[in-house]
Amino acid sequence: MELAEARAETEPRAVDRAALLAVDGVTLRFGGVTALQDVSFAVQAGAICGLIGPNGAGKTTLFNCISRLYDPHAGTIVFDGRRLARFARHEIAALGIARTFQNVALFATMTTRDNVRVGAHALARGGFLANALALPFAAREERRLTERAEALIEEFRLGRVADRPVGELPFALRKRVELARALAIEPKLLLLDEPAAGLNHEEVDGLADEIRAIRERRGVAILLVEHHMNLVMRVSDQVVALEFGRVIADGPPEAVRTDPEVARAYLGSAR
Ligand SMILES: Nc1ncnc2c1ncn2[C@@H]1O[C@H](COP(=O)(O)OP(=O)(O)OP(=O)(O)O)[C@@H](O)[C@H]1O
């Protein structure tokens, strides 16, 4: 493909506000540092979108805006037709957004099964009082959560380690537990923060298959922050590239990979 043609295909464009996730003109500063500058892009329902960029480009900051950990100074994020700014951080899961973390955020002394159950609990109805009084609907809810957790344990092939504390498991397996836990809320959007970090070649291959399979099975949209370029290019339907807080390319993986702006941004970067 000619370079000019590649550029045209990846040029940032007006955001599609009807998409599952529409990030529109988001700006966020930390003191004098502009971490995000007028960032706009959209992710369609069921699509896998890779978010790339050199260190400090703003990827984590953007994730934190979508999870409501940070409030943008300007712009809007619309998810499934709702403006996220209207919701508190603890309401995000109920809207249908789940997240995994770079360093795996599980309860190390709890078993695999209990970690997955905790994920399902994020959506549990009834609450503390109903559970404390052992009301019938609380018992029904518990059964429902147990069934959901067991289904996920089977789906993610975790049966063999279901009763082991997750802190004892190899890192790659803990990552699978974290995926199962995130999906326990049956999200419409899954945010994956550097899922390949700390994995070897073979494990990254397995992860790529797993990510595609999750989307096929569940139709969930996935936004993936990742430095591992091969993984991003292999699994994504769309890739958004950031540099110094700005979107420099947005398009199909092959077009973004060959985009001269992206190549320039990565020049001198060893990753
Ligand atoms: N809490 C914070 N306080 C001050 N500056 C911050 C904070 N978080 C991020 N920054 C700055 O904002 C910019 C974007 O950082 P961010 O962590 O979002 O980049 P990134 O693309 O995720 O980088 P990496 O690939 O290294 O994880 C950087 O200049 C960073 O130093």
TrEMBL record:
Q: Where is the ABC transporter domain?
A: 21-269
Please give the GO cellular component terms listed in this UniProt entry. Answer: plasma membrane
Checking InterPro entries in the record gives: AAA+_ATPase, ABC_AA/LPS_Transport, ABC_transporter-like_ATP-bd, BCA_ABC_TP_C, P-loop_NTPase
| Domain of life, per lineage | Bacteria
Q: Which UniProt keywords apply?
A: ATP-binding, Nucleotide-binding, Transport
Provide the GO MF annotations for this entry. ATP binding; ATP hydrolysis activity
Record has Repeat as a keyword? no
The identity of this protein, by name, is Branched-chain amino acid transport system ATP-binding protein
Q: Which organism is it from?
A: Roseiarcus fermentans
